[in-house]
Design a protein that fits this description.
This protein has 9 helices and 13 strands. By secondary structure, the protein is α/β, with parallel strands linked by helices. It has a 5-stranded mixed sheet with strand order 1-7-6-4-5, sandwiched between helices. It has a 4-stranded mixed sheet with strand order 8-13-12-11, sandwiched between helices. Strand 12 and strand 13 form a beta hairpin. The longest helix is centred in the C-terminal third of the chain and has 22 residues. Bound molecules: coenzyme A. The site of coenzyme A has 19 residues, from helix 2 and helix 6.
Length: 321
């Protein structure tokens, strides 16, 4: 039995925010942002919630797969920007979609979240725990972004991407890898609530994303090529066998450097970071949906997905489309 992606969907807020607009908020410029990151604009919520965006992307993925909400028996949402601590985003999405037969839960593996979700879904399908899973990566990073910090506010965007993965006779998910290095968690972080109760005085101020940009950059350009090689070895395939590499969209310079290190043409790396910025867990499934809807994924061809981010975490998947 194989686990195969049968449909994809995505949702991006209509509100597109340009670098020019951001340069009215902090001391930066369109030229600087484009040169250092490749980002020209990003979609920012004007009130759409994490649940609303996730449900919209999930609905489109179900339509694309040609199945109904009742067919879904697992919903996994990857996010670091849930609307509520309780209930989970996945349970709220279940309610929105009427997917009453599903078990639903969230995971937090930051920008690698969709890769971790794929691995979980594949394991559930292989062990008979589920047949049809709806996987969603969604972020409203704008609410945990410090809009006065030019080191971070230029980078992030909001949105959601989704995929339906189901038990299939034909090949699909061929190999997955994942990893974490909690000892380097401090280079990309966002504090949550601290303990504030009758026995402890907590800090009630809001936490925002903190990032050591150069450290994250170095981690990404080293780790992503390694994990692409590792997943190909696990799947007994070579770099040359792969048609497209869909990477987490954090920075165009990172993507260029990874293509260079792997000695692959940049054309094999679809990009939307220019229009979406970094949408963390939503980034890989949004790109997957865009690539799918453009008709660039052909049956029988091999595709590699790879992500990296806070934790630190990383993951990659080898798929036959
Ligand atoms: N506009 C203008 N100048 C800026 C700026 C901005 N938005 N942000 C930083 N600068 C300045 C810095 O203050 C620094 O000035 P100084 O030399 O006078 O001290 C200079 O630009 C260079 O800063 P540095 O941080 O070294 O730039 P960089 O080339 O490393 O680019 C990032 C910064 C954030 C674009 C880059 O490090 C990066 O993309 N890192 C990875 C981020 C990432 O992928 N995060 C998410 C992972 S999931």
């Amino acid at each position: 039995m194989h686990a195969k992606i049968m449909g994809t969907g995505s949702y991006l807020p209509d509100n597109q925010v340009t670098n020019h607009y951001i340069s009215t908020l902090v001391d930066t410029s369109d030229e600087w942002i484009k040169e250092r990151t490749g980002i020209a604009s990003r979609h920012i919520s004007t009130g759409e919630t994490t649940v609303e965006m996730a449900a919209a992307a999930g609905k489109k993925a179900l339509e694309d797969a040609g199945i109904g909400a009742l067919d879904v028996d697992l919903i996994i949402v990857a996010t670091v920007s849930a609307d509520h601590l309780l209930p989970s985003t996945a349970c709220s999405v279940q309610k929105e979609l009427g997917a009453v037969n599903a078990a639903a839960f969230d995971i937090n593996a930051a920008c690698s979240g969709f890769l971790f979700a794929l691995n979980i879904a594949d394991s559930y399908i292989q062990t008979g725990m589920c047949r049809t899973a709806l996987l969603i990566g969604v972020e409203t990073l704008s609410k945990i972004t410090n809009w006065n910090d030019r080191n971070t506010c230029i980078l992030f965007g909001d949105g959601a991407g989704a995929a339906v993965i189901t038990a299939s006779e034909t090949p699909g998910f061929m190999a997955g890898i994942q990893g974490s290095d909690g000892a380097r968690g401090h280079v990309l972080s966002c504090r949550g609530r601290t303990t504030d109760n009758p026995f402890a005085d907590g800090d009630l101020s809001l936490g925002y994303i903190y990032m050591d940009g150069p450290e994250v950059f170095k981690f990404a350009v080293k780790k992503v090529p390694e994990c692409i090689q590792e997943v190909l070895e696990k799947g007994n395939r070579n770099l040359e066998d792969v048609s497209l590499f869909l990477l987490h969209q954090a920075n165009f310079r990172i993507i260029k450097s990874i293509a260079h290190r792997l000695r692959l043409p940049l054309e094999k790396f679809p990009v939307n970071v220019d229009e979406c910025g970094n949408t963390s867990a939503a980034s890989v499934p949004i790109l997957l949906d865009e690539t799918n809807k453009k008709g660039l994924l052909h049956s029988g061809e091999l595709v590699v997905l790879a992500g990296f981010g806070a934790g630190l975490t990383w993951g990659a998947a080898l798929l036959e489309w």
